[in-house]
Write a structure and sequence with these properties.
The structure holds two protein chains of two kinds. In chain A, 58% of the residues lie in helices and 16% in strands. By secondary structure, chain A is α+β, with helices and mostly antiparallel strands. A five-stranded antiparallel β-sheet of chain A has the order 2-1-5-4-3, with helices on both faces. In chain A, a hairpin with a 4-residue loop joins strand 1 and strand 2. Chain B is of the alpha+beta class. In chain B, strands 2-1-5-4-3 form a five-stranded antiparallel β-sheet, sandwiched between helices. The chains are: A alpha+beta, B alpha+beta. At the A-B interface, helix 6, strand 3 and helix 7 of A face helix 2, strand 3 and helix 3 of B.
């Protein structure tokens, strides 16, 4: 498996289709609103509903829920298009939060916003760290990512087209290996010399992990471990 | 493979690291049992063979270049694990006391010396 391309082009046809569906459902709903008023009037007249009225009430309820689903689909598509989400796991999470929102009758857009914050929005600390790293390493930095350890999700990448999702559980798996067999624990870092004169650098911080792919032509391991590591920790 | 040369390489490594080498094992990749060592630890040998395999797979899945030469793993309690990776199909795992040696001696003297000596030993 190579780079996971999470930033594909959103499907514009799909969005158009959804807009049409929503407009159609709005038209249907206008009619049902009239029916709804009629039904409530009838309720006032007769406390006991006739079978025809029951059918109408069920139909009204059905159309109302259908409209809610269409609205949800529209919002989900907008969210996916805004964030260029293709990853199936992310979509599942969003769907789940949407279902939860319907159950709780809360505003869906609030839930989508909080999801976006968890998945994609890096903290101020992460932004500051990468501002420093990019400035300090310049061309030596091939790729840098940040992993939120609480959610095991990548929340920042210096290249939006390259997000190696498999690395989001790197620290967890590594520590599992170490602890299971030897009771050892990873302290601060792992550094590896790679082919093509590259360096893989993993640094563990309080709430996040930093992974850097570096070019060894311009930077050496001594600088990373004696200078860079300490500066990143200070931020 | 010349086992005498492997043992000699380990002795030279102990001298280079001047008391900082806590334990080391030379083992074939994917097998995880020691060919020669100092303060050998069979569990650690098996574990670090597995850790190397995990790192190789993670790098590959991420689309990064493959593992080459060595990796360093910083552990709690001033311990450092160094695993030297040989394309001939062997690895050497070392447990180092970081309070007794500086990084410069480890990276610029001890690792290159033992790499060169072991490569020669594997060829024979």
């Amino acid at each position: 498996m190579g780079w996971l391309d999470l930033f594909g082009t959103p499907n514009s046809k799909g969005n158009k289709k959804n807009i049409k569906t929503v407009n159609k459902s709005k038209l249907v709903n206008k009619n049902t609103n009239k029916k709804s008023t009629n039904i409530s009037k009838k309720k006032e007249e007769n406390t006991k509903l006739k079978p025809e009225d029951k059918v109408a009430a069920i139909k009204e309820d059905f159309l109302k829920r259908q409209k809610e689903i269409e609205n949800f689909k529209k919002k989900l598509n907008t969210f996916k298009a805004e964030n260029n989400i293709k990853n199936e796991d992310d979509i599942k999470t969003d769907k789940n939060s949407g279902i939860q929102a319907n159950k709780n009758k809360t505003n869906l857009s609030t839930n989508v916003k909080s999801d976006r914050e968890i998945i994609l929005k890096p903290s101020q600390q992460v932004i500051k760290i990468f501002d420093f790293i990019k400035n300090d390493l310049g061309k030596s930095l091939v790729l840098g990512i940040s992993i939120d350890r609480q959610s095991n999700r990548i929340n920042y990448s210096t290249d939006s087209n390259k997000i190696p999702q498999n690395l989001s559980k790197f620290e967890e798996t590594l520590n599992k290996f170490l602890f299971e067999k030897t009771n050892l624990h990873l302290s601060e870092y792992l550094i590896a010399r790679l082919k093509d004169n590259k360096i893989f650098y993993f640094q563990k911080l309080n709430d996040i992990d930093i992974v850097l792919l570096l070019d060894n032509d311009d930077i050496n391991i001594g600088y990373i471990l004696n200078v860079l590591k300490g500066k990143i920790k200070e931020i | 493979m010349n086992i005498k040369k492997i043992k000699q390489a380990i002795e030279n490594l102990r001298e280079d690291l001047d008391g900082a080498l806590i334990a080391t094992d030379v083992y074939p990749t994917g097998v995880g049992t020691s060919l020669a060592g100092f303060n050998s630890n069979p569990q650690a040998t098996a574990l670090f063979d597995r850790v190397t395999s995990f790192i190789i797979k993670s790098l590959d899945a991420a689309g990064f270049p493959g593992l080459d030469k060595y990796y360093l793993l910083d552990l709690k309690g001033n311990h450092l694990v160094v695993v030297i990776f040989f394309e001939e199909g062997y690895q050497q795992g070392m447990l180092i006391d970081t309070t007794k040696v500086n990084l410069g001696i480890l990276l610029n003297i001890a690792i290159p010396n033992v790499q060169k000596a072991l490569r020669e030993a594997f060829k024979e």
